[in-house]
């Protein structure tokens, strides 16, 4: 029956009165950045009944990112915050073997001074990271190490009575007073600087064993080399770790796994012998012991020549014989292997084009079975072996419209256990759409496209080409907050994975080997042509920008093509002659480019954007981090100076005290605001 006019008017009035309750979600904005929580480091209790993890949030008052520990039941109940330290951070939580306690790293001050000999020499500065211990249900924690230089990493012994720790040699002898001013830095090392560490001297990181009850400490390794990524065998007989040896470990990338008995004076044994990198720390993966202590799962890359271009494969080494096998050679990168309880398979993350999924690898036939699916980027996992029950597996990951969540992996799919960003349900977030096209030479190229909020087909929009770092990395279906900010402000975001990217195999990655800014520049420009041809991008309002190698490629693109009206180049470089010996990559330069005095053609090609800076007309904002030893400010400064000398609109922004990855919340906010203003000025406002 047709309603009367009075009924229609009443219905409309009711809707208007109720409108606030049904208002459209707000757009994601810069203010939301400080509300985001970053989940990491999941660890399941031995019986699989509970999960502990870390959550990083912004302390606006202190202007720092701060990390606390949380626990939640595997059934999703009893989610509780375990630590409350607004000015300090806790990380790497690990359940004790009996499940009664949780050990973790913290840079918080000690509740009381440790007695002499209790885990090392006490330093005047309590800001170093040490190992702490707390009851599994939460409560008061106590510090169990006091190394002067702090603890870099640790792992439990299976008896629960000891821990193995990685500690850097102290700056000064035990008991020596702290000098008023730092002493001179003296080095004879081939690689003499590292981002986040600073200048490298003769001090190294070594393996120690600490008795938890008494604090007694034994140094297990020593020498002019570093030990990293310890893993204690389930039978308690050995500790595996990663190290580089040889006449000068700084000159190569041939990491190997070594074994040692957990006692002072024990003889080390080299386990892996592959002439390439076995468990490069860059891969954020440690040796994984099989439940019966007879094998180790790990990652293996190519020979040194190929640096990071060769995908790292899952490998298995037999402890007794040293025999190494690659069970599933699929030309893709693997991450973070974990064993099944029966030792017949391994869980691992596998990177494919634009996604990374959790999979199970059968060690008999090499069959790979995906356990997560769709447009996801999985970053970490944890596995528990409850007695008499199936493995319990949790995965840390998500898609492009939500930051990482932790979920239980079950036959029916994923069951969320932890999500600390529920407020995003009230924000309009835009999906990243898969796109594919061909480069100028016919090579198939893939990427992602984020359209503006309220996108209307047929209407052209200002478009920002984002260029990823690496170069061997890729844009994936991962939550990218800057893309959401741009989309909320009316921009389309184009993210191309050009040749040199990961996710598509060795040949695709090595296509730009010693030839940066050529084929990859061609590929990203083909992506721009694609979105222009398809009526999405306004060809008169194109921007470009990236960080790290993304800035290096940005510089190369704007030196070759004048179509962009605005560029942002963060932590980049273009004069590779100047970078040699100034950043941390002398070994990688030598392997890929050779030496500046003997391989001039290679260095000229890599330095093309700087040597041809006179061709750049695009207004460019240069940014860098003042303490960055990865891509130092010199790279941005030189390009800024070149454009400033020629009166091309430009600006240089330096972030004080920061390393390659910015961490200070106010600086992250400042960078986002500046980027948006720069693009608005040249892509939206009248000339």
From TrEMBL:
Keywords: Hydrolase, Protease, Serine protease, Signal. Residues 105-127 are annotated as: Disordered. InterPro entries: 6-blade_b-propeller_TolB-like, AB_hydrolase_fold, Peptidase_S9_cat, WD40. Pfam families: PD40, Peptidase_S9. The lineage of its organism: Bacteria, Pseudomonadati, Pseudomonadota, Gammaproteobacteria, Lysobacterales. It comes from the Bacteria. Residues 479-685 form the Peptidase S9 prolyl oligopeptidase catalytic domain. PANTHER family: DIPEPTIDYL PEPTIDASE FAMILY MEMBER 6, SERINE PEPTIDASE S9 FAMILY MEMBER. Residues 1-23 form the signal peptide. This is S9 family peptidase.
């Amino acid at each position: 029956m047709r309603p009367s006019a009075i009924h229609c008017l009443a219905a409309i009035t009711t809707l208007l009165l109720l409108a606030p309750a049904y208002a459209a979600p707000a757009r994601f904005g810069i203010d939301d950045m400080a509300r985001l929580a970053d989940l990491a480091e999941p660890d399941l209790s031995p019986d699989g009944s509970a999960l502990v993890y870390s959550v990083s949030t912004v302390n606006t008052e202190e202007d720092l990112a701060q990390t606390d520990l949380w626990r939640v039941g595997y059934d999703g109940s009893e989610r509780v915050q375990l630590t409350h330290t607004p000015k300090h951070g806790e990380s790497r939580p690990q359940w004790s073997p009996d499940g009664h306690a949780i050990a973790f790293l913290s840079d918080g001050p000690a509740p009381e001074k440790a007695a002499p000999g209790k885990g090392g020499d006490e330093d005047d500065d309590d800001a170093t990271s040490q190992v702490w211990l707390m009851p599994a249900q939460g409560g008061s924690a106590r510090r169990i190490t006091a190394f002067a230089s702090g603890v870099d990493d640790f792992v439990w012994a299976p008896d629960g009575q000891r821990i193995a720790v990685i500690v850097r040699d102290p700056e000064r002898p035990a008991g020596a007073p702290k000098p008023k001013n730092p002493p001179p830095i003296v080095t004879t090392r081939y690689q003499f600087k590292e981002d986040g560490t600073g200048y490298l001297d003769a001090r190294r990181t070594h393996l120690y064993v600490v008795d938890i009850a008494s604090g007694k400490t034994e140094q297990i390794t020593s020498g002019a080399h570093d030990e990293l990524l310890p893993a204690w065998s389930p039978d308690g007989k050995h500790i595996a770790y990663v190290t580089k040896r040889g006449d000068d470990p700084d000159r190569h990338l041939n990491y190997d796994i070594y074994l040692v008995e957990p006692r002072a004076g024990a003889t080390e044994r080299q386990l892996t012998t592959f002439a390439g990198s076995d468990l490069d720390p860059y891969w954020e993966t440690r040796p994984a012991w099989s439940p019966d202590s007879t094998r180790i799962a790990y990652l293996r890359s190519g020979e040194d020549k190929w640096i990071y271009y060769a995908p790292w494969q899952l490998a298995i080494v037999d402890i007794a014989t040293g025999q190494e096998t690659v069970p599933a050679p699929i030309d893709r990168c693997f991450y973070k292997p974990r064993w099944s309880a029966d030792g017949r398979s391994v869980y691992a993350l596998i990177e494919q084009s634009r996604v990374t999924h959790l999979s199970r690898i059968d060690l008999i036939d090499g069959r790979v079975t995906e356990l997560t699916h769709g447009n996801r980027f999985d970053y970490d996992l944890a596995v528990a072996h409850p007695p008499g029950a199936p493995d319990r597996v949790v995965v840390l990951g998500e898609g492009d419209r939500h930051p990482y969540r932790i979920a239980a992996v079950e036959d029916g799919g994923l069951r969320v256990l932890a999500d600390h960003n529920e407020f995003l349900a009230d924000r309009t977030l835009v999906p990243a759409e898969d796109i594919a096209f061909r480069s100028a030479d016919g090579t198939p190229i893939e990427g992602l496209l984020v359209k503006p909020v309220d996108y209307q087909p047929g209407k052209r929009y200002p478009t920002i080409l984002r260029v990823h770092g690496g170069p061997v990395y890729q844009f994936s279906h991962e939550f990218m907050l800057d893309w959401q900010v741009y989309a909320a402000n009316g921009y389309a975001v184009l993210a191309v994975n050009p040749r040199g990217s990961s996710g598509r195999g060795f040949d695709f990655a090595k296509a730009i080997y010693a030839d940066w800014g050529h084929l990859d520049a061609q590929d990203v420009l083909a992506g721009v042509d694609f979105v222009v041809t398809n009526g999405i991008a306004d060809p008169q309002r194109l921007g470009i920008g990236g960080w790290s190698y993304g800035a290096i490629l940005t510089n190369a693109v704007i030196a070759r093509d004048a179509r962009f009206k605005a560029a942002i180049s963060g932590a980049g470089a273009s004069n590779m002659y100047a970078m040699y010996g100034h950043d941390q990559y002398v070994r990688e330069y030598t392997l890929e480019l050779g030496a500046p005095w003997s391989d001039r053609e290679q260095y000229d090609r890599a330095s093309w954007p700087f040597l041809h800076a006179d061709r750049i007309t695009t207004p460019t904002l240069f940014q860098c981090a003042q303490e960055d030893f990865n891509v130092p400010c010199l790279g941005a400064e030189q390009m800024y100076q070149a454009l400033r000398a020629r009166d091309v609109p430009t600006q240089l922004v330096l972030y004080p005290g920061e390393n390659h990855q910015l961490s200070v919340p106010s600086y992250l906010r400042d960078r986002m605001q500046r980027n948006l203003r720069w693009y608005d000025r040249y892509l939206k406002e009248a000339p």
